[in-house]
Amino acid sequence: MSEENKAILKAEGLTKIFSSGIINKEYTVAVNNASFELYPGKVTSLVGESGSGKTTVGRLILKLIEPTAGKIFFKGQDITDIEDRDTKKEYYRQIQGVFQDPFSSFNPLFKINRIFDILFREFEPETKNREELISQSLEEVNLNPDRILDKYPHQLSGGQLQRLLIARALLLDVDILVADEIISMLDASTKMGVLNLLVDICRDKGMAVLFITHDLNLGYYLSDDTLILHEGNLVERGATTKVYENPYHPYTQMLFDSVPDIEEKWDRSKEFIPEQIIEAVEEFYQNNDEEGYKEVEENHFVLMSILETENYK
Amino acid sequence: MGKYFAKKLVIYPATFFVAVTINWAVPRFMPGDPILSMIAQFQGLEGGQQIIQERFIENFGLDQSLIIQYFEFWRSLFRGDLGISLMIYPRPVFDIIKSSIIYDIIIVFPAVSLSWIVGNKAGAYSGFNKKADSFVMPFFYFLASSPYFWFAIVVVYVFGFRFGVFPTSHAYGTGMTPGFTLPFIINFIRHWFLPFFTMFLVGLGGWAIGMRNMIIYEKKANYSEYMKALGAKDKLVRRYAFRNGVLPQVTGLAIQLGTIISGAILVQMVFSYPGLGYRMVQAVQTQDFFLLQGCFLALITMALAANFIVDIVYMIIDPSIRASYEEEG
Amino acid sequence: MSFWNKIKKNENIYYAVTNTKVQIGVVLFLLILLLSIIGPMITRYSYTEFAGPGYEPPSSDYWFGTTIQGRDVFTQTVFGLRSTILVGFIGGLIASIIGVIIGLIAGYKGGWLDELLMMLTNVVLTFPTLAVLIIVAAYLPYRGIVNMAVLVGLTVWPWTARAVRSQTMSLKNSRFVDLSRISSNHIIRILFEDIAANMFSYIFMVFILQFLGTILATVGLEFIGLGPTRGISLGLIMQQAVNWNALELGMWWWGIIPGLILTIMIVSLYFINTGLDEAFNPKLREF
Predict the structure, then answer these.
(1) Most buried residue among A5, A307, B94, C211 by CB atoms closer than 10 A?
(2) A239: exposed, middle or buried (C-beta count within 10 Å: 0-12, 13-18, 19+)?
(3) What is the CATH number of the domain that holds B311?
């Protein structure tokens, strides 16, 4: 494999289990044995419905929470267990995130330039030409520094705030960007602008983007690789074109079928009840004898049976 | 289940442990060595001085190392030996406590229960009734803000002297012999009434305010609005809101117990009502060291017992205790 | 932009200032505060001197009447107010600081640290405060305003700790806290700039409650005779009234008026607090 094709981030068997309650402890397996890779210059979309665990995956990669099991490799190094602030800081120099709700991503009491100030203070305190660099980043995301920097978050629009958060990641010139449903709360007219921006900088800077979304069409539009998540299990992964044209796993098939085509009209027979999906998926797992992932074609993998979760009780 | 109980069960012994330790440590580590100065006080006592000095040394183990003193303290505690009162010499402290504790219980228990029940009802009524609310609320605020002892003073003045309806000090009249005779019982109740009344009214204010705020909050809740939209009778909506409001009030009761007992001490002072609080303050004033310690421990134990009861009540009322905090599994 | 400008833009402030309960409470409180500041300056007597004949009911010469020995009750009250308010304020400050710090750490860190701190909080909470104060104060060789305040502050902080902890636990899941974390922001800054700053109104309200609590605890101690060793205090006035059988002798002004002033002050603080609660919590506003 050539240098450019080497994965910049590798997740192996990532598992996250939440426990709640005191008297009768309840365990929720949010993510079960997810393994995937992120490549520089490529957009990987992580597709799943709400509750599928996709946000949890994002938070695991960003080390906002610790995995119950599994490993994360960054540029070949095992970063799963790093805990001290300085090592984490090195990691954050190379990976950043943008979240779903632009308004709750900013501390409402401060002006928006705070997010840049924190970056400089923590990562490059010696920088003398801060304003210049900030202005540059803002221009890269099509924002006018003079009209933005002095404002409070509530004075700006959602689209502007998301661009700001992208500019922030650009300032650090990160290698990986985790974008968690970054346009789902924006107006239709602003969505495309932010999306195109994302793709541009990904290609231009050679950034790896993990694009988390529930929107299948977006996934197809944007990404080079696709990961399909169902109830914490990574059921299908591979090159986007292959996964979309040839969905193999019953869940993926149902998912694609349930998206109304812009040319189709309302049709009752297209409706799926959740129980049908669960039944179909269970049947699928039972009826094949294979374990783990099967490579159904080049760069296209399907989960044939649920991987066993590590004993956590 | 286990973890929840385990946590609860640890807190009580832990608190008791801390209390005993404070009890033991305070006189020893205070600047000015109170113990020695206390012994010095008895230089003048004939005959008694010898015994008291011996007692001091024995109970304090002053001739031994600190660690041994500490263990000795615990040992005497388990033997029920809390020392001998200096004020009412030579009555054992444990004895005094035994005879005083009844007075605390008969005032605090009924006053707290009644003020909680009546206060919650009154607060709920006020919460549902906008007109009544503006009249009644300032009154409740006034009650809740009154320092216990000040309100006692007011009650003493108004009912005790101005209108002379009730006696204002002690548990029963001088000259009355305790017994199950009717005249004694009546006299006893008359003496009991004002202290009880004070604690009842002041407590009432607090619960009323709390419940009223809960009701207002519940009225805005989705389920309330929904039920009303469905045409449910007002009474039904109120019943649900009340039930939801009661739970935090039970928790509030547990939290308030310390304050209530503190208040009881002060009320007993005003009425010279011979409960533990009264004895404790007397002990301070006469520098009756052993009695002071004994009363302190007894009060703490009472507080813990009361807390425990409230905890059990809470568990019975809310079997679905799901403290929903997520643990990183 | 300056701190004050930030406040002005805040809609919470608007609601707080226009709330009736807050307005009434603030006026009452300021009146009493004024009394404690100006009172001692305008009174003709000192609180120890024998100002006139004893047993005097309130009159134009002796606004609150005189004690049995002939001391002026008004003078005693206003000086006592100063002492009590000071102890209450310092104690409330100490209690709030301790409570906020413990609440922040327990709420943010979680895990065993949280369990430990909460256990500590519960232990302190269970103690009848006055009993503890009595036992410690009884052995203090000297009781001044400051060490009384510290003592009282150290016993009432659990309430703040619990309240701050639950707010912290909900705030720590905010996205902007996440962003601070992936910016490697220092934890102290996160705790203060992101979390505490966003519950400022809440902390303020809690401080008012602590202030009120410490005043009540202080007055209780004073009443028992464990107040500041020197000087006069409200509780002390009332203790003397009771000890000299003032009520039996019909001298209601001696025992009741000082306490009434105190009660009014506490009522005003409760009003402010409830009003602020309505102002800051939209759900309660329309009632």
Answers:
(1) C211
(2) middle
(3) 1.10.3720.10
Please indicate, yes or no, if residue B212 is contained in any of the structural domains. Answer: yes
Distance CA A47, CA C266 (A): 58
Look up the domain containing C211 and give its range.
Answer: 33-42+63-282
Dihedral angle over CA of A188, A189, A192, A197, nearest 10:
-130
Structural domain span for residue B236? 2-31+82-328
- Asked if residue B43 is part of any domain, the answer here is no
Cα separations (Å) of B241 from A171, B140, B214, B245?
Answer: 53, 21, 8, 6
Q: pLDDT tens digits, residue range B81-97?
A: 777 776 676 678 888 88
Residue C123 domain-assigned (yes or no): yes
> Hey, what are B287's tokens?
């520098």
Spell out the residues 6+ positions from residue C287 whose beta carbon is closer than 8 angstroms to its own. B130, B216, C278
Residues of B in contact with A17 (CB under 8 A): 329
Cβ-contact C95, C160 below 8 angstroms:
yes
B329 contacts A68? CB cut-off 8 A? yes
Residue A293's φ and ψ, nearest 5 degrees, are -95, 140
**DSSP classification of residue A260:** P
Each residue of A120-158: pLDDT tens digit?
Answer: 999 988 888 888 999 988 988 888 888 888 888 988 988
Query: Which segment of A149-163, A220-234, C14-28 scores lowest on mean pLDDT?
Result: C14-28
**Which residue's structure tokens are 């665990």?**
A53
- C186 assigned to some structural domain: yes
Chain C residues touching B154 at Cβ < 8 A: 256, 259
Judged by a CB distance cut-off of 8 A, whether residue C184 touches chain A is yes
Superfamily of domain A3-260+269-303: P-loop containing nucleotide triphosphate hydrolases (3.40.50.300)
Q: Which two tokens stand for residue B56?
A: 């001091």
pLDDT average, residue stretch C118-126: 86
Please give the pLDDT value at position B46: 59
- C-alpha separations of A156 from A99, A111, A159, C187 in Å: 17, 11, 8, 28
Q: What is the mean pLDDT of residues C78-104?
A: 92
Chain A residues with CB-CB distance to C192 below 8 A? none
Inside any domain, residue C23 = no
Domain ranges across chain A: 3-260+269-303
The CATH code of the domain that includes C166 is 1.10.3720.10
Which chain C residue is nearest to residue A58, measuring alpha carbons? C178
Residues of chain A contacting residue C179, judged by C-beta atoms under 8 Å apart: 97, 99, 105-106, 115, 165
For the four alpha carbons of A75, A77, A80 and A82, in that order, the dihedral sign comes to negative
* Contact indicator for C184, A89 with CB cutoff of 8 Å: yes
Q: Which residue of A has its CA nearest to B321?
A: A23
Q: Which residues on C lie below 8 Å from A110 (Cβ)?
A: 193
Strands A293-297 and A300-303: antiparallel
Q: How far apart are CA A282 and CA B248, in angstroms?
A: 44
Strand partners, A45: A211, A226
Contact at CB, C174 and A108, closer than 8 angstroms: no
Q: Verify whether the Cβ–Cβ distance C197 to A107 is below 8 Å.
A: yes
C193 in A contact zone (CB under 8 Å): yes
- Residue C226 — very low, low, confident or very high, per pLDDT cuts 50/70/90? confident
Taking the CA atoms of residue B115, residue B4, residue C114 and residue C163 in that order, the dihedral angle to the nearest 10 degrees is -20
Residue B190 lies in a domain: yes
Per-residue pLDDT reduced to its tens digit, C249-278: 888 888 899 999 999 999 999 999 888 888
**C237 and chain B in contact, CB less than 8 A:** no
Which residue's entry shows tokens 């540059």?
A136
pTM given for the model = 0.82
Domain count, chain C: 1
Residue B14 lies in a domain: yes
**Counting one residue from A and one from C, how many pairs have CB atoms under 8 Å apart?**
57
